[in-house]
Design a protein that fits this description.
By secondary structure, the chain is mostly beta strands. It has one domain. It is built from no helices and 13 strands. The chain is elongated and about 55 Å long. The mean pLDDT is 95.
Length: 163
C-alpha cells in the first residue's frame, strides 16, 4: 500500500515545529481472521517506510522497527453490509534525520512506544484513498535513552491507497 502524509508536524526539541511531507508505503500479511462482531482480520506488518525532505532537517525517514513485540494490526468490519471498516496499524518506528539539530552525522532515533495509525471510516479494505491519523503523538529518542525525547511526531495525516 502506498501512503502520503502532507505537512506532518514534528516538534523538534531545539527547533520547535517543523513540517515534513512524507511519502512511502507499508506491507502486511494476514495472520488470522477475527470471528467476533462483524469479523475482520489481524495483520502482521512486514515493512513500513515513509520519507520526506525538510529545508531544516534534510531527509527524514520513518522506518518500521522489527522489534518482534509489536502487536498485530487489525481491520474490523463495523457493519453487516461490510461498507465501513476500522483499520488500526500498530507500528514501532525508527526515525533517521539527515541533518540533526546542532549538526553532526545523521541521527537515528526510536519511538518510545508503539504507535497506532487509525483509519476509522474506511469504505473498503484494502483502502483506496483511506484517511488515517495517529491515535496520539509519538515521541522519538536515542536508542537506549527513551527519556531523552528529541522529536515528537504530532500528527501523520496519511492517505493510504492499495495499488
Amino acid at each position: 500500500m502506498t501512503a502520503h502524509a502532507a505537512d506532518s508536524p514534528l516538534n523538534v526539541s531545539s527547533l520547535g515545529l517543523v513540517t515534513v511531507d512524507f511519502k512511502g508505503g507499508l506491507r502486511a500479511l494476514v495472520e488470522q481472521e477475527i470471528q467476533s462482531g462483524w469479523g475482520g482480520v489481524r495483520l502482521r506488518v512486514e515493512g513500513f517506510e515513509m520519507s520526506g525532505d525538510s529545508p531544516v532537517l534534510g531527509k527524514v525517514v520513518l522506518s518500521w522497527a522489527n522489534t518482534g513485540s509489536t502487536p498485530l494490526s487489525e481491520v474490523r468490519i463495523l457493519d453487516g453490509s461490510a461498507s465501513t471498516h476500522l483499520s488500526t496499524w500498530h507500528l514501532d518506528w525508527t526515525m533517521t534525520i539527515e541533518r540533526p539539530p546542532g549538526g553532526g552525522v545523521p541521527m537515528q532515533l526510536s519511538s518510545t512506544k508503539t504507535a497506532a495509525l487509525v483509519g476509522d471510516q474506511l469504505s473498503a479494505f484494502p483502502p483506496q484513498g483511506g484517511k488515517y491519523q495517529l491515535q496520539q503523538p509519538v515521541d522519538f529518542a536515542p536508542v537506549g535513552a527513551p527519556g531523552q525525547v528529541i522529536v515528537s511526531l504530532q500528527q501523520l495525516p496519511a492517505t493510504v491507497t492499495y495499488p
